[in-house]
Amino acid sequence: MREESRAFLHRYLDNVSPTGFEYSGQKIWLDYLKPYIDEEIVDTYGTAVGVINPGKEYKVVIEAHADEISWFVNYISDDGYLYVIRNGGSDFQIAPSMRCLIHCESGEIVKGVFGWPAIHVRQGKNPEVKQENICIDVGCNTKEEVEKLGIHVGSVAVFEAGSEWLNQKYLIGRALDNRMGGFMIAEVARHIKENNIDLPFTLYVVNSVQEEIGLRGAEMISRRLNPDVAIITDVTHDTYSPMYNKKQQGDTKCGKGPVVTYGPAVQNNLLQYIIQTAKSNNIDFQRNAVSRSTGTDTDSFAYSTTGVASALISLPLKYMHTTVEMVHEDDIEGCIQLMLAAVKGLESGQSFQYT
Fold this sequence. Notes:
Elements: H1 3-14, H2 23-33, E1 39-42, E2 48-52, E3 59-65, E4 70-76, E5 81-87, E6 99-103, E7 109-115, E8 135-137, H3 143-148, E9 156-159, E10 164-166, E11 170-173, H4 176-194, E12 202-208, H5 216-225, E13 229-237, H6 246-249, E14 259-262, H7 268-280, E15 286-289, H8 298-302, E16 309-317, E17 325-328, H9 329-345
Parallel strand pairs: 3-12, 3-13, 13-16, 14-15
Antiparallel strand pairs: 1-2, 2-12, 4-5, 4-9, 5-8, 6-7, 6-9, 7-8, 10-11, 11-17, 14-16
């Protein structure tokens, strides 16, 4: 990975962009993308789009989502403790002893910790970690002290954790789900620009908001763009990690390449095109199957308007929705190269409909 790309990746990952408050991350992303696009779009809720070769009748999307899981302050007790609810798929069980950053309307950031009683005083009982018994301590003794810091009901808290490399090949950090996707589609745009690739269609490079609470950003932008083809990238589980059941959750592993998905929302002819593209370009890939839905923005694009030919290319990831999410550098490059090859191989007006 080139140094400029690596620097952008860490700056983008270490920024805080929780669901509903993605602005700062989107700004970092668009600033990096601007040299490689012709136009940009930012919609009402903050989904950002880089446009390459605008104005063509045939329209293709490559897409990721920008938001990360977090917490909303829901109640402030008289003795100065903050109680929270989820904003997205946050995990109560990992919260105790975590440090966090609380974002206030003034723009101030207040540090806090998720406290938890010591093992010595639990009398052999392990209380269930759930919404009503985890809280944030910001070093205040009263509700008034908390409010003077600028914290209020609705303030957003995010775990404090930076990104770094492990064993020189694994990237770890929080919010790799799915700012890795935003990084990868930006790199596709960079390759297109730097290699003077002339596309016969308009390419929208889309970084959607609010995926973590129901694919909402993709739902809005898919209707606005109304593309002919959408290639979505997100993360999927490394099922070789401990406590996974491959019979139930599939057989996918970090370091073995991007994952293509079979499922009702995935248009089969587009999927076969992507698989053939991978084979033609000697890109290792893995396969996964889903049942009713992919659980990704693929579902929103597939079922928008009159239906959009959509497919999903996933990055294998360990420890999803924790502060130590982990991906392999080879898989990052594999996803970038597969999306790039798929886009390069598309023809204007290419139909994936059944005949």
